[in-house]
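Support request, please re-run this one:
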Amino acid sequence: MNNLHSLGNKIKDRMLKGEVTLGAFLLSANSFVAEAMANQPIDWLLIDMEGSHASKEDALHILQAINAYDVFPIVRIVEQNTHQVAFALDFGARGVMIPKVDTCKQAQAMAAACYFPPKGNRGMNCIRASAYYNRAAEYFARANDSVLCIVQIESKESIANIEEIAAVAEVDVLFMGPGDLSVSYGQIGQVYGTLMNNARKKLIEVCKTYGKIPGIFAHSAESSKDYINEGFKFIAIGNDIKFMNDGIADNLKKIGAA
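Re-run finished. Output below.
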């Protein structure tokens, strides 16, 4: 049986028990690259449709490539659009990352799109996710428990409203985007410092209060370690393009060509 149809949410259960999960963003929009990464002992892979040129067809092919592996598949949608949430879940993603969630109202609207009634308002068109309708009854019965709803906290407005966002029951992960947050604070690219440090601390505290999972994008192995020590449980350690560049640079350096 394809891993796509193994319903449940082991990754969420692990994080709620205090475990850290590590993942990576996929920017290449390439199923070959994605499958190679799925062979690594990584917990989750995220198809980044907001930050790359990936089309819906690209996303489908990547999901087809990685669903056979024991890696949790996630899609970051382009914008706050319920159709994009439905597409991601219907075609095989198990998690959805929603960008630029600044208010409770936005969080409520997008989280509702992740779940079938009565928990939400997701439409009934789970083509691939239900094994092309061959496992539809089982899918409808268990899908709501298999979804990971991730909202991005990436502006000073979202930090100001973070308690109201965290109070939305259907939201699972509050995921900080340090790059965009640094821009919002007027310190482009400076992901540390008083404002950023306080924002991370506030996110961790709010997640503890409301039983949410704290997530973040780490720009280096060193920052990944820092974030683990701070209490983050859902950490992106980079993206496929960065890993390729780092690998090339490292080999050139070892050869003595750089």
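The radius of gyration is 18 Å. Residues 21 and 187 are 29 Å apart (CA to CA).
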